[in-house]
Specification:
Elements lengths: L18 H8 L3 H18 L1 H4 L31 H36 L1 H15 L3 H12 L3 H27 L3 H8 L4 H9 L4 H24 L11 H8 L8 H28 L8
């Protein structure tokens, strides 16, 4: 005679604590909405730079150097007679390309290295020593050294900023994999003989998506700042490519005469980084289950 045991019904989490619902609620606040609007405007400005720019940003006009605001030059001209407004608009392209490129490359490399590092102990012992060595070097110094060795170009800047970001992503992914490595469903898949690659792709990698999205937003903001620093120091993109960093570097000598040469690109740089950080905080609050009760 068999005995039937009635198990209590497991509590079902309310709909408002699910990731999608939490994300919607996190995006309702006015700071997040304002950040989304400002970031969208900056992206549109970068994409439509040929339409919004009044002149060629690299065109030299020594006869109109260091002019103030005028109908022909909305934000004045720099020491070489180049239109500051057009250079600031085109500079958004460099910042967004660098931010997006560094984010994608560092996340991809961190995922490819971090997943096997968290799963295989022997691989972890080798990889983490290399990552610790890279993290011991300040990122900006490593980027300057790489640019100095390889020459100034947009590709070199992308690589130089990406390499210091990879160890941070690797440590994040490795920590997530170590946390779920001994979960019951993973152990069950291993006992059933699931191939290692399929086990990683189906059971381990999905757990890293949410933290990687949040980390990616911070990397995006950090990459924009690092590119501006490199360009300001003369170790970034070539001078003929307008970026917010080298625009400020060219205008610092004449800051007391025309402060806008530094303030205009600096203001856009600050707004871009601030909006990305606001969105990163909203994503963190929405995707982190520990913060679900706050939303």
């Amino acid at each position: 005679m068999s005995t039937v045991i009635d198990l209590p019904d497991l509590p079902v989490p309310p709909a408002d604590v699910r990731p999608v619902s939490r994300l919607r609620r996190a995006l309702r606040g006015w700071p997040v909405l304002l950040a989304l609007v400002l970031l969208a405007l900056i992206v549109v400005m970068a994409l439509c730079a040929p339409l919004l720019g009044t002149t060629d940003p690299t065109q030299l006009d020594p006869g109109s150097r260091l002019q103030g605001l005028s109908a022909a030059h909305w934000l004045g001209t720099d020491a070489f007679g180049r239109d500051v407004y057009s250079r600031v608009v085109y500079g958004a392209r460099v910042s967004l390309v660098v931010g997006l490129g560094v984010t994608l490359f560092s996340l991809a490399a961190g995922l490819l290295i971090g997943v096997p590092a968290g799963y295989f102990r022997w691989f972890d012992a080798i990889v983490m020593r290399v990552m610790d060595g890279l993290m011991a070097i300040p990122g900006i110094l490593l980027a300057i050294a790489l640019v100095s060795l390889s020459g100034s170009s947009l590709t070199t800047v992308l690589v130089a900023i990406t390499i210091p970001e990879i160890p941070r992503v690797v440590r994040l992914v490795r920590g997530v994999i170590l946390g779920v490595r001994h979960e019951a469903y993973v152990e069950a898949a291993i006992s059933l003989g699931t191939p290692t690659l399929r086990l990683m792709l189906r059971h381990l990698v999905p757990n890293t998506i949410a933290p990687m999205i949040v980390q990616g937003t911070y990397i995006f903001a950090s990459a924009i700042i690092t590119e501006a620093i490199l360009s300001f120091l003369g170790a970034g993109v070539p001078p003929d490519i307008p970026s917010w960093g080298n625009i400020m570097a060219d205008g610092r000598t004449y800051f007391q005469l025309i402060p806008g040469l530094v303030l205009y690109p600096g203001a856009l740089l600050s707004i871009t980084v601030l909006t990305v950080n606001v969105l990163a905080d909203a994503l963190r609050d929405a995707l982190d289950p520990r913060l679900a009760r706050r939303l």
